[in-house]
Amino acid sequence: MSSLVETAGDVAAPPEAVLQVDGVDAGYGSVPVLRDVSITVRRGETVALLGSNGAGKSTLLRAISGLIPVFAGSITFEGRPLQGVPPQKIARRGLAHVPEGRRLFGKQTVQDNLVLGMYGTKLSRAEEQERIGRALDIFPALKTRLADYAGLLSGGQQQMLAIALALVRRPDLLMLDEPSLGLAPVIIDEVFAALAQVSREGGTVLLVEQLAERALRLADRGYVIAHGRIAASGSAADLLSSTDLALAYLGGTG
Ligand SMILES: Nc1ncnc2c1ncn2[C@@H]1O[C@H](COP(=O)(O)OP(=O)(O)OP(=O)(O)O)[C@@H](O)[C@H]1O
Ligand SMILES: [Mg+2]
User: Fold this and answer.
1) Residue ranges of the alpha helices (H) in the chain?
2) How far is the CA of 197 from the centre of ligand 1 (A)?
3) Whether 166 and 212 share a structural domain
4) Nearest CA residue ID for atom 30, ligand 1
5) Could you tell me if residue 227 is inside a domain?
6) pLDDT class of 253 with cuts at 50, 70, 90
7) What are the tens digits of pLDDT across the range 231-246?
8) Mean pLDDT score of the chain, rounded to an integer?
9) Please, are residues 48 and 39 in contact by the beta-carbon 8 Å criterion?
């Protein structure tokens, strides 16, 4: 997947926006949590969404994937508006959301989870197996666990499977909510290595993380959200080197 496929004359156009969030207010019931939030994710980018506990990171992912109402502003995915589209339909359009916690079929094997992950895609058996093979290349730790019940995996392996379940659908945008949460440092390394591979292969990722430094080392750009508003944004390098504004809002660093 090339990020510079669209050219105008001799000048390469910037990669198009896969996701465009414009001036969004959103929340629970009628209570807004997010205020005037605007973010862009372009094709092939990894974008970090950072902020302390309760800042509104998960709320933003939920608003994007249609799980909670948007009161104002607009959300566009692949050039089409998402407001009012039910979450299942948004997922089918190619937007994958790996929520906090791991949504797996605990009483199914790892292999069956991966097949179930492709439910509704109308792929052939061979294509399904090819996609599972690619997911296992990204998460080699799952290779020896294919026949085991997902519920019996370690926390780290469950997180890997949750991400693999999203990857087998070849999403246009992969949104991850704190994939490092509760995992041992060595497992976090594995998860981040996998995300780096997804990025190298051209994947587009919106990554919510408390481990700001880790996330920014992986990402191209980042946003810091505080009290439901975007408090800072910029290139990952700029955010990493900014000691004042960005880091003031961040809980932990990697
Ligand atoms: N289901 C809910 N109903 C009502 N309010 C909620 C709900 N979930 C979250 N909130 C509130 O919305 C605000 C933002 O929460 P959110 O979960 O988006 O934060 P977060 O940035 O993801 O934090 P964390 O790092 O703890 O996951 C908080 O004030 C929280 O109390
Ligand atoms: Mg959260």
Assistant:
1) 57-64, 87-92, 110-117, 125-138, 155-167, 185-200, 212-218, 236-241, 245-248
2) 30
3) no
4) 54
5) yes
6) very low
7) 999 999 999 988 654 5
8) 90
9) no
pTM exceeds cut of 0.85? yes
Six token digits for residue 13: 């156009």
- Which residues are bridge partners to 222 per DSSP? 48, 234
**Ligand 1 center–CA 236 separation, angstroms:** 25
Identify the band that residue 180 occupies on the pLDDT scale cut at 50, 70 and 90.
very high
Ligand 1 pocket (Cβ < 6 Å) reads 28, 33, 51, 53-59, 210
How remote is the CA of residue 178 from the centroid of ligand 2, in Å?
A: 7
For atom 18 of ligand 1, the residue with the nearest CA is: 56
Of ligand 1's listed atoms, the one at least distance from the Cα of 225 is 21
In a domain, 196, yes or no: yes
pLDDT at 187 over 80: yes
Task: Quote the pLDDT of residue 243.
Answer: 61
Among 57, 60, 67, say which to mutate for ligand 1: greatest number of ligand atoms within 8 Å of CB: 57
**In whole angstroms, what is the distance from residue 167 CA to residue 131 CA?**
8
Q: Cα 244 from chain centroid? A: 26
Domain count along the chain: 2
Is residue 179 predicted with pLDDT exceeding 60?
A: yes
* Number of the ligand closest to the Cα of 57: 1
Residues 191, 205: one domain?
yes
